[in-house]
Structures are given as structure tokens and as C-alpha cells.
Design brief:
Elements: H1 2-28, H2 38-46, H3 51-61, H4 69-85, H5 94-106, H6 109-126, H7 129-142, H8 148-164, H9 171-186, H10 189-203, H11 208-225, H12 228-244, H13 248-261, H14 268-281, H15 285-294, H16 303-316, H17 320-384, H18 387-447, H19 451-463, H20 468-482, H21 486-493, H22 499-509, H23 514-521, H24 527-540, H25 546-555
Helix pairs in contact: 1-2, 1-3, 2-3, 3-4, 4-5, 4-6, 5-6, 6-7, 6-8, 7-8, 8-9, 9-10, 10-11, 10-12, 11-12, 12-13, 12-14, 13-14, 14-15, 14-16, 15-16, 16-17, 18-19, 18-20, 20-22, 23-24
């Protein structure tokens, strides 16, 4: 009890000293904006760097300390901003609504912009992301053209919304870029770093050159700011980028650098998984197993990352059965995440639908009124119009239909010619690739006992083709044409099959030998073809051998 009493006394004494300090600071800045209480201006000056101190000061004063509507609105804005930046729970938008409503009419665009931003942030916290997006857009439109920080922050929040909603678009990347440019103009290095980190992560999935560019800039800026956590988080991001780019040696080197120099600043499990995967892909299973054993299962651990690390480890050890089971578990975990994201988007869509429904009622009322007037006008025209005018319109319409019919006939002939030309080109392409397949068979018979020479000849032959991806497209089209659209039916009935699985089935249906298939698919040993058949049969859930299944389709 005595310890508790001493702690309370210390806490109250600290708040008292804080309030006195604010009063003194207010006197120092009283020459500033005389339109608002100087104490609020003093809190505003530290809210960005020390939001916890600002929140304590605001709570010590309370709404009752201010009688003027300007000051009360300013207090509401600062209180919401401090709560948001301190991750304090916000139950409703009532407080920030006071600021939004007041600054909408008093002409202070800077504070109106901030009020709109934190109204959007509050709605985001409450789960109303569609409405939050609207307020961030309003803030961007309201902000002065020189208000770079608030323009950057509005775009930053919109980027986070798009990112968290699992939106399949580039909107979040564009918003992060705009936010970064505004933060550069505002000379706000901390927020520049946040944008660079996110851009480095997002570009890994679409453009590796851009990913390396933004990751490098993030590392440089983090070193300049001595932001160790951001620096080593960016190094781990760089390690992941090297993995995606199949540069496993570089992935390992970067991960080891973080392990030796910044383990206390990094996500330990993420780092250990990266090392496990790099060693697995470098075919060093013992080292991979060592780092995997160091990982720990935590509640906030990423299950997919763990599964993929263990899959790479099992493959490096040649345990493909265990790897397949782990891949199925990873698929299930990914499916759960996807379903959650779908629910999130449905929730947003439902909110948007409720808003649009109110607008739709107004539109329908206006439409019904317009239809009523249109009927009255049409009746007047019908009564006053002559039979001659009606007949002329009828003849004009008939002539127009005849012209349209003639044009359709011409278009049909042109489309038929194009189809015939396309079919001719397809036949020529199929013949070319069948000829290439024969050459590959000859190469295999000549160099089958010399794997390295066989691979060199195979790659040289494929290099003759300007577009290697076209080979698979032509082969798929050929199989569909030869076997009653079989590949299209298989992909529809078995959506679990990957593009690589479809390529494999196409070669089986063309009676390619196991040796030739192993060359095309890049396998080290023709025995892998047998394993691939079993894996595809398991995916499709068929009891028959895959060859029996293929023969049944080809015989139809």
C-alpha cells in the first residue's frame, strides 16, 4: 500500500509540474497566434514529437478550462490527435465532430484539414474504412497547396487503407509515392522513411528494380536518422527481395549481417526463417535445419512464413511427401487470410451500399417525376402529331435497320476471314513446335548419357524461339483443338492445378517421353516425372494413375 501511495503521489506531482511547465511555455509562445489560447498552441508545438506528454497536459486541463468556441474546437482537435498517436482507445467521433463542425465555418483551413484527417483516422479505428477514405479525400482537397505535411499525411492514411483492405490494385503504391513527395517538401524525414519502407515491401511483388531502389533509399535514410529498427527491418526486406529474385547467396549474406549486427532490432523469427530458406535453396540442409530449430512458435508468428521455410527445408532434404503436406497446410492458412480479407471487403461494400441506397431513393423520386412529365408530353405529341409524320419516321427507322443489317453482314465476313487467318497461323505454329519437339528428341538420343551437353543443346534450341512463353500457349491450343477442348475442361474442373501442372498434362497428352518431359520442365532426373504424376493425381483427387486418366480423355 505504501508503495502504491508513493507511486500515486509521484504521478500527481509529475502532472502538476507538467501543467506548470505548460503555463510557462504558453507565456513564451503568447506572441504567436492570438486567435487561440496560448496553452493550446504550446501543446500543438510538441504533439508530433511527444504525443504522450501532450495527452497528459490536455487531460490535466480538460474542456472546462476553455469558454470560447474557437478554443474548445481546437482542444477537441488536439485531444483526438493525441489519443490517436498514443494508440488510446477512441469510442466515437463526438469529440472530433466538434472540431470539424466549428472549423468548417471559421475559415481556418489548416485546422479544418487536420480535423478532417483525424475524423477519418477515428472512423478507421472504429472500422468504417469507406467513410474514413472520404474524409481523407476531403482533407486533401481542403488543404492549402503549401500545407505539405497534412497533404502527405492524408495520402499516407489513404495508402494504408488501400493496403490493409487487400485491394488488388496499384492505388496504395501511388498514394505512398504522393505522400513521400509531400513529406520531402515538408522536410519530414521520419514519415519519408515510413513511406520508403512500405514502397520497398509493395514493389517486391511487381517490380524488383523499384523494390531494390526504395529499400536502398530506406536503409540510407534510416542510417542518417540513426533509426536502427527501421534500418535492420529494411535489411530483412532486402533479404526477402533477394530470395524472390532467386539470389540466395545474397539473401544469406544480408540475413547473417543482420544476425551479427542488429538482432536486437529485428524480428528474430523472420530473420531465422530467411536464413533457413536461403540455406535450403543453396542445398545446405544441415545449416537450414540449425536456423529453423532456433525459431519459436509465437502467437503473433506468421504461419505462412513458417510453413514455407519448413517446406524449403524438407525439399532440400529430399522429403517431398512432408513438403507437400506442409504446402497444403500453408494453402489452408493462406485461404483463411484470404477469406478474412474478403469479409473485410464485404463489410466495406455493405457500408457503401447503405449510403448509396439513400441516394438511390432520391434519384428514383426524381426519375419518377421526370417519367410522369415525359408521359404527359408524349401524349400531347401523339395527339397533335399527324399520321404522315409517323409514317415518315417508320420508313426512316426501317432504312436505318437495313443499313445496320448490311453492316453486320460485312462485319461477319471480316471476322470470319480473321478467324481463318488465325487458325492458319495456329496450324503453322503447332507444326513449328512439333518440329522442335522432334529435334529435342533427337538431341536426347544423341546426348542422353551426357546430361550437361543435353542441357546445353536444349537451352540453345529454346533460345531460337523469340518468345518461350508462346510455346506453352501454342501447345495448350493444340491439345484443346486435338482433344475436344480437354485442357479448358481440366482447368475448370480442377482449379487447384498450377500453370506448371497444366504444362505437364499437355506434354503427357502429346505422348512426350519421360526423358523429354524432364528436359522441358527443367528436372534434374527423369524420375521426377513419376513423382510429378503422383502429385498431380493427389491434387485432382483421382484414384487412377494419371496416365490412365489422360488416356481416357484422349480416347474420347
Amino acid at each position: 500500500m505504501a508503495a502504491f501511495a508513493n507511486a500515486m503521489l509521484f504521478s500527481m506531482r509529475g502532472i502538476l509540474v507538467f501543467v506548470i511547465g505548460f503555463v510557462m511555455l504558453a507565456a513564451a509562445v503568447s506572441c504567436g497566434d492570438a486567435h487561440y489560447d496560448a496553452r493550446l498552441a504550446a501543446i500543438d508545438s510538441i504533439i508530433e514529437e511527444r504525443p504522450d506528454s501532450a495527452l497528459a497536459g490536455l487531460r490535466a486541463m480538460g474542456f472546462g478550462a476553455f469558454s470560447r468556441s474557437d478554443d474548445r474546437a481546437y482542444f477537441a482537435l488536439l485531444l483526438t490527435e493525441a489519443q490517436y498517436k498514443c494508440y488510446d482507445s477512441i469510442a466515437s467521433t463526438d469529440t472530433i465532430d466538434l472540431a470539424v463542425n466549428h472549423f468548417t465555418g471559421n475559415g481556418d483551413r489548416e485546422k479544418l484539414t487536420r480535423s478532417l484527417i483525424f475524423k477519418g483516422a477515428t472512423l478507421e479505428e472504429l472500422g468504417y474504412n469507406v467513410e474514413a477514405m472520404e474524409y481523407f479525400k476531403k482533407a486533401e482537397e481542403t488543404a492549402l497547396s503549401t500545407d505539405y505535411h497534412n497533404l502527405g499525411y492524408a495520402n499516407h492514411r489513404m495508402a494504408v487503407l488501400y493496403h490493409n483492405a487487400y485491394a488488388e490494385s496499384e492505388l496504395h503504391i501511388d498514394k505512398y509515392k504522393r505522400a513521400y513527395n509531400y513529406y520531402v517538401l515538408a522536410k519530414d524525414s521520419i514519415y519519408q522513411l515510413k513511406c520508403l519502407e512500405n514502397l520497398g515491401v509493395l514493389y517486391r511483388a511487381s517490380n524488383m528494380d523499384s523494390a531494390y531502389f526504395y529499400i536502398s533509399k530506406a536503409i540510407e535514410l534510416a542510417k542518417l536518422l540513426d533509426a536502427k529498427e527501421s534500418e535492420f527491418a529494411s535489411y530483412i526486406n532486402l533479404s526477402r527481395a533477394f530470395e524472390i529474385d532467386s539470389l540466395f547467396e545474397k539473401q544469406k549474406e544480408v540475413a547473417l549481417y543482420v544476425l551479427d549486427n542488429g538482432i536486437q532490432y529485428a524480428d528474430t523469427n523472420e530473420l531465422l526463417y530467411s536464413l533457413c530458406r536461403s540455406y535450403s535453396n543453396l542445398l545446405l540442409p544441415d545449416s537450414a535445419q540449425y536456423y529453423f530449430d532456433l525459431t519459436t512458435k509465437k502467437a503473433d508468428d506468421n504461419p505462412i512464413t513458417r510453413f514455407l521455410a519448413e517446406v524449403d527445408l524438407r525439399e532440400a532434404k529430399g522429403d517431398y511427401t512432408a513438403a507437400l503436406k506442409l504446402l497444403k497446410q500453408a494453402e489452408k492458412a493462406a485461404y483463411n487470410i484470404e477469406k478474412n480479407s474478403e469479409r473485410l471487403q464485404l463489410f466495406y461494400s455493405e457500408k457503401e451500399y447503405d449510403r448509396q441506397k439513400t441516394k438511390l431513393k432520391e434519384i428514383r423520386y426524381q426519375r419518377d417525376l421526370a417519367i410522369l412529365w415525359s408521359i404527359v408530353i408524349v401524349l400531347i405529341i401523339v395527339v397533335s402529331a399527324s399520321v404522315c409524320i409517323i409514317y415518315i419516321k417508320y420508313r426512316n427507322n426501317l432504312r436505318t435497320l437495313e443499313e445496320q443489317l448490311s453492316q453486320l453482314r460485312i462485319d461477319s465476313i471480316l471476322q470470319l476471314e480473321q478467324h481463318l487467318n488465325a487458325e492458319k497461323k495456329l496450324t503453322e505454329s503447332v507444326a513449328s513446335y512439333i518440329d522442335k519437339a522432334k529435334k529435342l528428341t533427337e538431341i536426347y538420343h544423341l546426348f542422353g548419357n551426357h546430361p550437361q551437353k543435353l542441357r546445353e543443346k536444349f537451352l540453345a534450341l529454346l533460345d531460337d524461339n523469340d518468345d518461350k512463353a508462346q510455346f506453352w500457349e501454342v501447345l495448350r491450343a493444340y491439345v484443346n483443338a486435338a482433344h475436344n477442348n480437354a485442357i479448358h475442361k481440366i482447368t475448370t474442373d480442377y482449379p487447384c492445378l498450377t500453370e506448371s501442372d497444366i504444362h505437364f498434362i499437355c506434354m503427357l497428352m502429346c505422348n512426350f517421353s519421360n526423358a523429354l518431359i524432364s528436359v522441358y520442365m527443367g528436372y534434374k532426373n527423369p524420375h521426377y516425372v513419376y513423382n510429378k504424376k503422383k502429385m498431380i493425381a493427389a491434387k485432382m483427387g483421382i484414384n487412377d494413375n494419371i496416365d490412365i486418366f489422360i488416356n481416357r480423355i484422349c480416347s474420347k
